[in-house]
């Protein structure tokens, strides 16, 4: 008579962080809305800036001497205009929100949490992936906008090179605006979880509310300067304080404060996204 020893059931190994990154990358690139939002957003931003450069190149023969003295600053404004920044924010914040809201709306989140019970590791991978993708996306869009606008202005010999004072700061600020606002969209999506409400809230928080905050008083100016779009405006305004066509506000923002605003929004948004998903039930 022989006896058999029951085989012990081995628990599957916990997924590594690289495995979570790979899984999140597959989910992100499988969403058709990702391509539409980022593709149309990039084309709109580049076209909007190129049109601003085209208009300035056409009007250049009618510029007076004072305007021609500041043509370098005008060329940097055309490289990434205010309107294109608004379009970029809408595109990247929507994609950031969809990475979380999409899973809740389809019910995929239950399968995801069953496969990966460690929600904090899962959300850390999602935050890392979105930050990396949006940073590359922002750099490509800002670089393409700068190259196309300066090429158009060069038809009048008034384009500026990358080594022009302030050019790298404009490109860096415009590129980093993408991951900062995408993370803000993720945080709002993690808290709200409903697609339509999240999109409305994202637009209100990142675009509408900052436009209603004045810099007349010191405390309102502090709140205004703490908004991503206003921080980007300060970083992209190379002629701040030296532009004869623009008044300096009573409580001006600083370049250092604008960079800190970018870092604070990214860090706080990442923490809110991780904690909100980890602490709340599905």
What does this structure look like?
The chain is mainly α. It is built from twelve helices and no strands. It has helices at residues 17-30, 32-59, 65-69, 71-79, 82-106, 108-115, 119-153, 167-192, 195-212, 218-225, 228-236, 255-279. α2 (32-59) runs parallel beside α7 (119-153) and α8 runs parallel beside α12. It starts with 16 loop residues before the first helix and ends with a helix.
The average pLDDT score comes to 91
Low-confidence stretches: none
Structural class: mainly alpha
Number of strands: 0
Radius of gyration: 23 Å
The ordered string of helix (H) and strand (E) elements is HHHHHHHHHHHH
SSE map:
Layout: H1 17-30, H2 32-59, H3 65-69, H4 71-79, H5 82-106, H6 108-115, H7 119-153, H8 167-192, H9 195-212, H10 218-225, H11 228-236, H12 255-279
Descriptive terms for the model:
282 residues; 12 helices; mainly alpha
Concise account of the structure shown:
The protein has 282 residues and is mostly helical.
